[in-house]
Design goal:
about 240 residues, Chitinase A, domain 3, 7-stranded antiparallel sheet, 6 helices, about 40% helix
């Protein structure tokens, strides 16, 4: 997991994609795009695509706002519908802009507090699981397969397969999905990985849990919100000293 770059994301929907630049030929990419466009032209498939887009937009909204009741959902969806249909607004938008800005500020604090409490509970519970080792920087590792050979050193080069998720199960990156292992020096990754992978041997597999201060701290990275604990499945393929 690179410190500075591990994933490109769609700007609006924060849709996670490959962690590394694609190596596919341009002709293949063009073919795939053409196939996708042709599929989207089918009315049933287009309807499913537009539904998926709406679902993702809703998911993005709920990550930023606290919607307390059914009336909130109805009013929000009606406003979006009127806007999309180019209808006249039922309210004075300028009048309500200050309230909207204030709601975003207040909801950000509420969401941040909720996430902090959820992460604290998750980290405490994981640390109590059988076989979990808490490292000196707070990172945690639970081996599911021990592997053989020497463990990695702080400056070793490792080749791994991995999958990264938030504690709510949201996947933000996966070398398995790319069908291509990831090679890096342990000096070039987040502190959690630097420490945890020194506990691993070739052919070993583990769950690695990274408190926020061992991952990206208070920096938002793609779909990863600030101050996020991260959960990785890591499988070591090889270690080069």
């Amino acid at each position: 997991m690179k410190k500075t770059y591990f994933g490109l994301l769609a700007v609006l929907l924060a849709w996670p994609v490959c962690a590394q630049e694609t190596t596919e030929p341009a002709t293949q990419a063009s073919t795939d795009t053409a196939a996708a466009v042709e599929t989207a032209q089918d009315p049933a498939e287009r309807n499913k695509m537009m539904y998926s887009l709406g679902f993702l937009l809703g998911d993005n909204v709920k990550r930023q706002l606290v919607l307390d009741n059914e009336d909130d959902y109805k009013a929000l969806s009606q406003g979006m519908r009127d806007s999309l249909l180019n209808k006249q607004s039922q309210t004075s938008l300028e009048e309500y802009k200050p309230q909207i800005i204030e709601k975003y500020k207040q909801d950000a604090q509420i969401i941040s507090q909720r996430r902090e409490e959820e992460q604290k509970e998750y980290l405490e519970n994981f640390s109590k699981e059988k076989g979990v080792k808490v490292l000196d920087n707070g990172a945690m590792i639970k081996l599911s397969k021990k592997g053989k050979g020497r463990t990695a050193k702080a400056d070793s080069k490792v080749t791994v397969h991995y999958e990264g998720k938030l504690i709510d199960g949201t996947k933000f990156d996966s070398s398995y999905d790319r069908e291509e292992p990831f090679t890096t020096k342990l000096t070039d990754v987040i502190p959690c990985w630097t420490k945890a992978l020194q506990q691993m041997r070739p052919s070993s597999k583990a769950t690695v849990v990274c408190p926020a201060n061992t991952a990206y701290g208070n920096r938002p990275v793609g779909v990863i919100p600030p101050n996020s604990a991260l959960v990785f499945t890591v499988e070591v393929i090889s270690i080069d000293e």
